[in-house]
Amino acid sequence: MVLTLITFLVSILLNLGSNSLMAVLPLFSSLALLALIILMGILFDVIGVAAAAGEETPFHAMASNRVRGARQAIWLVRNADHVSVFCNDVVGDIGGTLSGAVGASIVFQLARRGFPIAEAILSTLMIAVVAALTVGGKAVAKNFAITRSRDILLTVGKLLYYLEKLGFNFGGRRPHKGKRRVR
């Protein structure tokens, strides 16, 4: 139920943002936004698959050597089911839906400008291109995510490390503020 609510809220925010941008962006920028949304879906798919394929062991040595992001990478692997659901299902499905909506908006922009191809054909081609880029990109990315999961998880771990330094909290740990007093 919570996941459904989060998905609902995130999709509203992303859709409102993309619709607002589509209203003011020229055609080339709309195509760039579409490519960015597809790329976001592929990138999050890579993170979700890497978390599911990753192993904890190499990150323990890194964490003991205080490598930035290693502790966060351990958290990603230990919570691979949640990370995978969020990255692959929540972000991936929202990205797929959003890319379809942006693609439809681009078709309407082209039709409104008198593009010489019929709207039905243009719509069919847009759906085919969006689906091919999304599915093809994710297929290629899955192999990369499985074979390079350690590097991917450490990179994402470093990003989470820096976000934690900015005050965001991942993994339920409270930020440490100075030395603890022993009574």
Average pLDDT works out at: 87
Shape: elongated
* Helical content (DSSP H or I, runs of 4+): over 70%
Main sheet, how many strands, which sense, barrel?
A: none
Radius of gyration: 20 Å
Work out the helix count.
7
Q: Low-confidence segments, ≥5 residues, pLDDT <50?
A: none
Please provide the count of β strands. Answer: 0
The helix/strand class is: mainly alpha
Strand content: under 5%
- H/E series: HHHHHHH
The N- to C-terminal Cα distance equals: 43 Å
> How many discrete domains?
1
Textual characterization of the structure:
With 183 residues, the protein is mainly alpha-helical. It has one domain (2-165). The chain contains 7 helices and no strands. Helix 2 packs parallel to helix 6 (119-147). It starts with a helix and ends in an 18-residue tail after the last helix. The model has no long low-confidence stretch (mean pLDDT 87).
Question: Gist?
Answer:
The chain has 183 residues and is mainly alpha-helical. The chain has one domain (2-165). The chain has helices at residues 2-24, 27-53, 57-64, 70-78, 80-112, 119-147, 149-165.
Question: Keywords, please?
Answer:
single chain, 183 residues, mainly alpha, 7 helices, 80% helix, 0% strand
Secondary-structure topology with pairs:
Elements lengths: L1 H23 L2 H27 L3 H8 L5 H9 L1 H33 L6 H29 L1 H17 L18
